[in-house]
Amino acid sequence: MKFAEDIVNFTLAEIALFLIFVLLIGYSGLKLQIENNKENSAAKAVDIEQAKSELIKKDNEISNLKDELQKYISIDKNLKSRIVPGCMEKGIQKDYLFKALIIERDTYQIDSANYSFSEILNKYKNEIENAKKNGCCLQIKVEYVSNISATDFDDALKQLEGVFYIRRLKAK
Fold first, then answer.
1. pLDDT for 4
2. Which of 96, 107, 159, 167 has the fewest CB atoms within 10 Å, i.e. the most exposed one?
3. Are 96 and 86 in contact, with CB atoms under 8 Å apart?
4. Number of H helices and number of E strands within the chain?
5. pLDDT value at residue 49
6. Are 146 and 171 in contact (CB under 8 A)?
7. How far apart are CA 114 and CA 74, in angstroms?
8. How many CB atoms lie under 10 A from the CB of residue 10?
9. CA-to-CA distance for 71 and 68, rounded, in angstroms?
């Protein structure tokens, strides 16, 4: 083997030329990569600016919504609660107005007499109006017969709860 030839029969000059060629290709690829990064950086900067402007818009929308919410909150800011207190809590009612036994969907027994819901409203009309004037809700006790269906009991109880505060007792 001659001193000027390599293992694969290339001269040192050919190998050096090959290495220079590889380095030039690598350098040009690196240069292209740097240019692409610059372009991407410029595009990313534009994207960042767009994101910033969108963020500012969203922040303004949130501020406007907060302002609208504050308007609604400030309407009721003096109220502690929307729940009307019971008349017993306010000292207007000394004891429960009556004790009702739910017999059917629209049949209630009060003091051994049967009433419909509308008859109860008529019977206690003055007390209900007085409670409304005083800003309170009348309180009653409610029992139910054990053989009433769940839907009938629920409907009857909802009617009473629309006008009175209920203290439920056990089934009779």
1. 47
2. 167
3. no
4. 5, 5
5. 77
6. yes
7. 47
8. 14
9. 5
Report which of 139, 133, 129, 134 is spatially closest to residue 160, judged by C-alpha positions: 139
pLDDT below 50 — which residues of the chain? Answer: 1, 4-6
| Residue 92: predicted pLDDT | 86
Angstrom CA distances, 9 to 22, 56, 87, 143, stand at 19, 68, 111, 110
At residue 76, the 3 state secondary structure works out as: coil
Asked if residues 101 and 144 have their Cβ atoms less than 8 Å apart, the reply is yes
- pTM of the predicted model, to two decimals? 0.52
pLDDT of 5-21, one tens digit each? 445 666 777 777 778 87
Q: Judge contact between 5 and 11, C-beta under 8 A.
A: yes
CA distances from 68 to 64, 72, 152 (A): 6, 7, 43
Reading the block at residue 146, the tokens are 């054990």
pLDDT for the residue numbered 8: 62
Q: Give the residue from 94, 96, 81 showing the smallest Cα distance to 160.
A: 96
**pLDDT score of 56:** 86
With 0-12 / 13-18 / 19 or more C-beta atoms within 10 angstroms meaning exposed / middle / buried, residue 140 is: buried
